[in-house]
Amino acid sequence: MFKKLLMPLIGGILILFFAACGGENAYDGEEGLISAKAQTTTDAFTSIQENILIPDAEKLQQSLQTLKTSVSTFETNTTLNQLALIQENFKTSAFSWKNVQTAFIAADFDKELIDLVILIDHFHIGNESVATLLDNILAKEADLAGLLYKNSTKGFTALEYLLFGEAETNEALLVEMQKSNKRRIQAIGLVIDNLIKRTTPILTFYQNDTTFKADVQEASDSLMNILIDSSYKLKEWRVGDAAGLTVKYKNQSNQKRLEYYRSRASLEGIKAILETHAKLMKPQSFSNFSDFANANSASKELQEVIGYINAAQTLVDSFDKTLEESVSDEKIHELYLALVNLHNGYYLSLINALNITSKIIEADGD
Question: What pTM value is reported for the model?
């Protein structure tokens, strides 16, 4: 289960009576503390669901279907051009998943979805080698569907290995794909089918759920939980570990700790995550979390967070090499520090301004 951050109420916290009490009935800070501009903040979470959560989940489904279509003829059209097309379609799907994962609040409102993240994405979970598991499976003659029973062998991490190999050229990889009755290609199709199966409930939930937008306090707590979680994993898992900047791997940089090192797309993955932070926190043409923060006297802290998002995005855009080629460069250190600022902006500044307290209950990963 992904790291869960709970935010219990403490004495003197904002109580949001958006349903029972309109803006005219709002109490001030001495009377009982309810949200100013209650309707505005209620509208913000409705808008987030309609303009971010649903569209991102739809985009993920569409990208996976496109990926499936491009793989459907691969057994009979096993060419370098087709492989390159499939690899690009994989990246589109992977980055769409990063958008969805970054704001994945569904598990807080539907316990049936609580394990979906680890069923879809095995990055930084456990110590077993996904590549070794898949190589052993592909070397056997038994039915592939039965052999791919572990979650680690049928998520995005597994799919990246199947499509890109381990630091191989596409020419060499294509030879591997043509061997053993093209079992590798068949495995790719099975993994994509599993990803479609696992991600479909996310879209269904967002399209039909009314619980997220029904309670402003729960909605804001949930979003803060996931953004703090995301910013922590950005700085530690997706940058710090690979650059040798964390306690665990101090001064031991290694590109293989990056999320998408096989496809050399780790920087683009980080960019997709930051895009979702920006959509949630920066003022948009639609209402979002910035409206909630401004209505609850956290404008200064919100602007600090937006500044940190902007700084991180500017740094990501300034790389002239892949992150895989930059793990020992000063530039990745700058990115790490920018992400530290972003995490602290959420964890130490914004939540305090909103009178919310966070508690780290459990950490997943290896």
Answer: 0.88
Model pLDDT for residues 143-166, shown as the tens digit of each residue = 999 999 999 999 999 999 999 998
Rounded Cα–Cα distance for residues 363 and 88 (Å)? 32
Say whether 339 sits in a helix, a strand or coil: helix
Q: Is the CB of residue 132 less than 8 Å from the CB of residue 99?
A: no
Q: What is the pLDDT of residues 225-244, one digit of tens each?
A: 899 999 999 999 999 999 99
Name the phi and psi angles at 10, rounded to 5: -125, 170
In this predicted model, what pLDDT tens digit does every residue of 254-280 receive, in sequence order?
A: 999 999 999 999 999 999 999 999 999
Spell out the long-range contacts of 298-304 with Cβ–Cβ below 8 A and sequence spacing 24 or more: 298/350, 298/353, 298/354, 300/353, 301/345, 301/349, 301/350, 301/352, 301/353, 302/350, 304/345, 304/349, 304/350
d(CA 354, CA 302): 10
Q: What is the DSSP letter of 323?
A: S
Element (H, E) at 233: helix 216-235
